[in-house]
Write a structure and sequence with these properties.
Elements lengths: L1 E3 L9 H9 L5 E7 L11 H10 L4 E7 L3 H9 L5 E5 H4 L3 H10 L3 E6 L17 E5 L14 H14 L6 E4 L6 H8 L3 E4 L1 H4 L4 H12 L1
Helix pairs in contact: 6-7
Amino acid sequence: MIAPSILNANNMHLANNINAAINSGINRFHIDIMDGHFVPNLSYGPELIKDLKKEFPNIEVEVHLMSNNLDQMIPLFVETGCDLLEFHIEAAQSNTQKWLDYLKENHIKAGIVLNPATPIKEITSYLPSLDQLLLMTVIPGFGGQQFRDDSAFRIKEAVQTIKASHHNLPIEVDGGINDITAKIAKDAGAKIFVAGSYIFNKNTIKQQIDKLAKVIS
């Protein structure tokens, strides 16, 4: 599955960019929410998610929450009607299970995000509560970075950890994804591919999605 990140879309033509992706077979979009504290960048607010769900009711919206103010931010984005919310284990720390339970209680799919430096073993006790695992393949905060060399090893380790715990959990990758790195990630065991600049900043959106789809099919 390809989940385009609209962070790199043209904000002046966002609806047109989303429509072009939908017409190219996309049914899930990845929304990066950055508050300027957990990562040194700012992006969207909850109103965008509400507008997306209103204007495009048939698409799935996953929120990637890059914030260490989870007490305020998770309830705020749950109210938007997003389909899946994934937060960083580095921000949640001892409250990770609390927030996973909260998402389940509010009928939102739950995901944990791991930064490149965070050991894969950190997810083990939370696997029964997860719908998805997101592995960052760059340092989070900015689009257009290069795929990290250690990413394939980490994906394989995550696959082994999930299998050892007798769970069936899709792994998503985010950062530096293109037609070359997507194949590396797929071969390592990733199932969901977040791509931003590759889709929205080169050729046409359809051409880029088609190229990526061929690689991961």
